[in-house]
Amino acid sequence: MAEPVLRVEDLEVAYATAAGPARAVRGVSFAVAPGETLAIVGESGCGKSSAAHAVMGLLDARRASVTGRVQLGARELLGASHTERRLVRGGELAMVFQDPLTSLNPVQRVGTQIAEQLHAHRAIGRAAARERAVELLGRVRIAAPAATVDAHPHELSGGMRQRVMIAMALANEPRVLIADEPTTALDVTIQAQILDLLAGLRVELGLALILITHDLGVVAEIADRVLVMYAGRIVEAGSPAEVFLDPQHPYTWGLLGAIPRVDRPVAPRLPAIAGLPPSPLAPPAGCPFQARCPHAVAACAELPALEARAGALGHADRCVLSPTVKRARREVVGRIGLEVSA
Q1: Which of 144, 215, 271, 319 is least enclosed by beta carbons within 10 angstroms?
Q2: Order of strands across the sheet that contains 75-76
């Protein structure tokens, strides 16, 4: 594998609240190489987007505490000045946000918004910026880029707005692209087109792509590696084949079990993970999933290390049960629809 372009080590994010610090991200570490897609998955509130915003430098220092290390190449970003972060953000490091309709300025033409990205990082004239905007719209497979460049966001469909957001992110040829739920609220046909576009651009431009999603189908389609997050921590990591075919953490079993299966009889109710995630104001000292896990043991009171237990060096998890015990219990759980209940 190529040398990672982005390294994140022991990332912690805590938000200031009236009740005390809310620890949204706790000790997250990962790396991503050029041409690689890293997917970060988990339910809403698990810390996926908070980690991405911390990497981008988008969190207000007055309201959020961020510690750890974020290295882009040889450059340390967390200790960089505001001016240095602005030069990197939108340049070498770019992000596609969840909702393009709220991320785009409704009163400006999309070409103007793409040009704004260019002017922020390059010495470029208005005519050249417009020409570049048309080129970028064509690259993200918008059928009539020369006409679309003068459109307002409300005149475009959801899929076209998402393509505009991707064009803006690509404007300055970033080394790393973070896509935060890029297929949210799109129908399945447009989702497939957006995923195909991202996969093609990753290969064409040699991008390191970080994909944040709760949709495991998206992960199976595009990812090279998967991180499963729960309550601010990574609880399992591996290739899609390892995580999907041999999941080692009970929380991952619950995520996979919540997906309706066309190859099984229709259940009277959809499977669900019983209980609620722990409060970030008072996260548990041990395994973050122990209160919801029917397989918890006394050792879960201590935080298990994220390490390889199933044999494959790249497949790590935080469950203290042996792989043999986990596979036996998972098989039983699978026969009842992967229901995880208290």
Answers
A1: 144
A2: 22-32, 6-15, 64-72, 75-76
As a whole number of angstroms, the distance between CA 4 and CA 32 comes to: 5
Q: What share of the chain is helix, strand, coil (3-state, %, to 5)?
A: 35, 20, 45
Q: Are 307 and 319 in contact (CB under 8 A)?
A: no
CB 304 within 8 A of CB 222: no
CA distance 281 to 340: 25
End-to-end CA distance of the chain: 41
Let me know how long the chain is.
342
Per-residue model confidence (pLDDT) at position 147? 96
At which residue do the structure tokens 């459109």 appear? 151
| 3-class secondary-structure state, position 301 | helix
Cβ distance 198 to 186 under 8 Å? no
Structure tokens at 74: 């040889």
Q: Which CATH number is associated with domain 6-223?
A: 3.40.50.300
> What is the C-alpha separation between 108 and 152, in angstroms, rounded?
6
| Both tokens assigned to 88 | 């990197």
Burial group, residue 49, by CB count within 10 angstroms (0-12, 13-18, 19+):
buried
* Listed residue (127, 121, 112) closest to 88, CA to CA: 121
Cβ-contact 11, 54 below 8 angstroms:
yes
The predicted-structure confidence for 171-185, as pLDDT tens digits, reads as follows 999 999 999 998 877
pLDDT digits (tens, 9 = 90+) for 82-95: 889 999 999 999 99
Q: Per-domain residue ranges for the chain?
A: 6-223, 247-335
| 178 contacts 55 by C-beta, under 8 angstroms | yes
- pTM exceeds 0.85, yes or no: yes
Helix (H) or strand (E) segment spanning residue 163: helix 158-170
- Rounded Cα distance, 110 and 246, in Å: 45
